[in-house]
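Deadline looming. Please check this record:
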Amino acid sequence: MNPTPAPSTRLVSLDALRGFDMFWILGADALVVALGRLSGSPIAKFFAGQLDHKAWEGFGFYDLIFPLFVFIVGVTTVFSLSSLLAREGRAAAVKRVVRRGALLLLLGIFYNGGLTHAWPDVRLAGVLSRIALAYTATGLLFCFLKPRGLAAVAAALLIGYWALLTFVPIRDIQLSDAALKVRLGVEHPTMAQAHVAFDATTARVTGEFAPGLNLTNHLDFEYLPGRLYDHYYDPEGILSTLTAIATCLLGVFAGLLLKRTDVDDLRKVGLLLGAGVAAVAAGWLWGIQFPVIKKIWTSSYVLVAGGWSYLLLAGFYYVVDVRQWRRWCQPFVWIGVNPITLYIISSVLWWSEVARRLVGGSVSNWFDRHVDPGVGEIVVTIVGLGLMLVVARFLHAKKIFLRV
């Protein structure tokens, strides 16, 4: 067995796991979906179905992608801030956290289209914005609290969020086009009409977790400015950011374990596996009353996603850093050291569209005619994925990084 890496040693497994996570966002998901359509077999359809979010309740592989990234942010926060705290002190660490959080917020607005449209048709919430807020809150907490304090905060966030959604009364109105159409008697309700109907509703209910009928969605509708992703509310809205911070804190606990030098590697792997199994089981058990729902980031969802994150981290850590089997994961490392850069590039340079200019049209049609219908789209997807990997390798070779 190899010795436990020193605290200053960069864990390649984290880069590989982060890259594995981003790999699906940056094109691999489309490839699996295309293969599923081409094959039509139950197995292929199952895997293709895992590359799409659950409509509301439930959990699939694609529902793990986002919280896994937030979890990894928490893990890396331990290593980056611990060394900075020891070297330059708390003020320098706080400054770094705030600066990086602000940069991510700005990048998030840019990714969502920036100022392409006039206000209020500008989306402030989003994936990068949520990462920014979760990272900033977690980083500041890490600078000021000890592990027990962090654990107390994580528990308070999960239990507090559950209590708010379960016991706080909300207006008995479902914010959806279908429900408002029936209530208002109009074919296409406007936001102004929706607000009138919302304000006029006097009946109150508690313990509701349906789409558009829960405290999280209602607060977004009332108080979240700008364009909302789901028209009346946003999956990266105000209140659910609290549990996203808890997801990041789960990563911090994993990072604290990996950083320890008094625990050997196999013991770390075992503890990560145990934590993962326990969290998944606890999440599904909690989900009996508080459903597992990504779009409002329920506490049960945090535990299920966090549990799977622990399990994946245990596997990657064992294979990549303990056993030192690394050649297979090099493409993931290229992506993993530059996830934000590649994500931003993908917002202005769609890999599949560039690939379509190279192998679309007659080339794609040739594959459809001479091989099998649908193969042309697979070729386009593979070329797009290859272009992304070429850019990732170039950035890695030139040491061009934008780190969280």
Remarks:
- The chain has 17 helices and two strands.
- Confidence is low (pLDDT under 50) at residues 1-8.
